[in-house]
């Protein structure tokens, strides 16, 4: 017999957990290796390029997990998905991921360029521009889109019982904090993956507690 349709695995919410862990590890490695000043001369290219490369290599896998997490949220919403908020929710999530990829590509390009021509890139105008560009697009623009994603997801959660109400309210507060302070403190950006981790754990536990037929009918 031909299956009538694909069913989202009950444990699919683990994708959000993977995303959160990978992104937090990547951010931690990056901030431990690269000075916070976006206009620094670039000494980390000689001393910490290995750790930065490891951080950058985690980003694509975090992105894949985030796409899966988006699918899990939409599947859980099912027919209750509001078109307006769902469009903003999906668009902000994709924009966040795209800008993270761009920032990672710029930093990766700096490392490759320095490997090809050692001791010529650090301190140059090209390095200063690329370093400031990567810093701004990740800390200011990408994570402000992440805040928009948190607001829309929390709104959908309140209206559809996507998650517990207190998680949605925490999302509003965290998003406001991220919107205001994401350009002033690098460590504030950990708020977003931590919140995604909380949402994913809630969905995973809820899915595993519910009967299999209820999950199949309502979505994962």
Comma- or semicolon-separated keywords:
mainly alpha; 75% helix; disordered N terminus
What does this structure look like?
Residues 1-6 and 213-217 have low confidence and may be disordered. This protein is an all-alpha fold. Helix content is 75%, strand content 0%. It has one domain (14-208). The protein starts with 13 loop residues before the first helix and ends with a helix.
How confident is the prediction overall: mean pLDDT?
83
Our Rg estimate from Cα atoms comes to 19 Å
Element-level helix/strand string: HHHHHHHH
What is the share of helical residues? over 70%
Shape summary: elongated
Describe the secondary structure blueprint for this structure.
Elements: H1 14-33, H2 44-47, H3 49-77, H4 83-116, H5 125-160, H6 165-181, H7 191-209, H8 212-218
Helix pairs in contact: 1-3, 1-7, 3-4, 4-5, 5-6, 6-7
In short:
This protein has one domain (14-208).
